[in-house]
Amino acid sequence: MAATAPRPLRQGDKVAIVCTARKASPEELAAAVATLQSWGLEVVLGESTAAAQHQFGGTDEVRARDLQRQLDDPSIRAILSARGGYGTTRIIDSIDFSRFAQDLKWVAGFSDITALNSHLLTLGHQSIHGVMPMLFHQEAGEESLESLRRALFGEEVTYTVPAHPLNRFGVATAELTGGNLSLLQTLTGTRSDCPTAGRILFLEDIDEYLYAIDRMMVHLDRTGKLQNLAGLLVGHFTNPQDNMIPYGQTPNEIIDHYAGKYGFPVAHGFPVGHEPQNMALVCGREARLVVNDKGAHLSYL
């Protein structure tokens, strides 16, 4: 059964910003609030944006309570996670999505928020993997912000990516799923573990050691996550780390080693992840991926 989508945002809609992971102050979010207001939206800063416990946006109880409140409030039409870091998996099992399921709204974020994106898709709901408010005017490029706006407002979004020497040609039509590689591995075997079979998977990560990227790809492969994919998008693997004895492969070469065991199309260099080009992808939405000698093209159906 296809994942269900919230209605597109409209001018005047109310959106909330919450911290499900690392802390972010209202002052740090001011520029993002101004941008969202320029899109015609009313912005609510959740309780967690004014809270802090060490690196977190408040205690687990504060962050969970804030997310639950925004999920249940019928006046809120989208929830944007302020930033990633770490912490979403600590609260996800305490959230009740039953009222949300009766009145869907957009949830958006990436990195640590992969846990929330994946969990929602296990429940059959679409969400957005995209730029978070903390990064609106620090790292995010204008293209990335515009792709998020278009996704939220239900406007057409298509992506064309230049050819890459490791691309594997083919065509796939399937729902999108994926996100941060280390989070996807962390979710394996939990209630937030989203099936990948028959779907187009996208991957990205930051600051990971090359051997760790290989180890995580081994884990995905051994747990059957790669075998029945419809397609694969390889995003940014930003600032990869290495040991004193070099690992000997780039992140793309590591991923190609495992993807090459199967016959699905693969598009490397896809603009998603921890870099200025972080284009919004709708998890759970059916898309068509075409990879050929000209490059790769992704469009929603």
UniProtKB/TrEMBL annotation:
<dbReference type="GO" id="GO:0008236">
    <property type="term" value="F:serine-type peptidase activity"/>
</dbReference>
<feature type="domain" description="LD-carboxypeptidase C-terminal">
    <location>
        <begin position="174"/>
        <end position="289"/>
    </location>
</feature>
<comment type="similarity">
    <text>Belongs to the peptidase S66 family.</text>
</comment>
<dbReference type="Pfam" id="PF02016">
    <property type="entry name" value="Peptidase_S66"/>
</dbReference>
<keyword id="KW-0720">Serine protease</keyword>
<feature type="active site" description="Charge relay system">
    <location>
        <position position="204"/>
    </location>
</feature>
<dbReference type="InterPro" id="IPR027461">
    <property type="entry name" value="Carboxypeptidase_A_C_sf"/>
</dbReference>
<dbReference type="InterPro" id="IPR040449">
    <property type="entry name" value="Peptidase_S66_N"/>
</dbReference>
<feature type="active site" description="Nucleophile">
    <location>
        <position position="111"/>
    </location>
</feature>
<dbReference type="InterPro" id="IPR029062">
    <property type="entry name" value="Class_I_gatase-like"/>
</dbReference>
<dbReference type="InterPro" id="IPR003507">
    <property type="entry name" value="S66_fam"/>
</dbReference>
<dbReference type="GO" id="GO:0004180">
    <property type="term" value="F:carboxypeptidase activity"/>
</dbReference>
<dbReference type="Pfam" id="PF17676">
    <property type="entry name" value="Peptidase_S66C"/>
</dbReference>
<keyword id="KW-0378">Hydrolase</keyword>
<dbReference type="InterPro" id="IPR027478">
    <property type="entry name" value="LdcA_N"/>
</dbReference>
<protein>
    <submittedName>
        <fullName>LD-carboxypeptidase</fullName>
    </submittedName>
</protein>
<dbReference type="InterPro" id="IPR040921">
    <property type="entry name" value="Peptidase_S66C"/>
</dbReference>
<keyword id="KW-0121">Carboxypeptidase</keyword>
<keyword id="KW-0645">Protease</keyword>
<feature type="domain" description="LD-carboxypeptidase N-terminal">
    <location>
        <begin position="15"/>
        <end position="130"/>
    </location>
</feature>
<feature type="active site" description="Charge relay system">
    <location>
        <position position="274"/>
    </location>
</feature>
<dbReference type="GO" id="GO:0006508">
    <property type="term" value="P:proteolysis"/>
</dbReference>
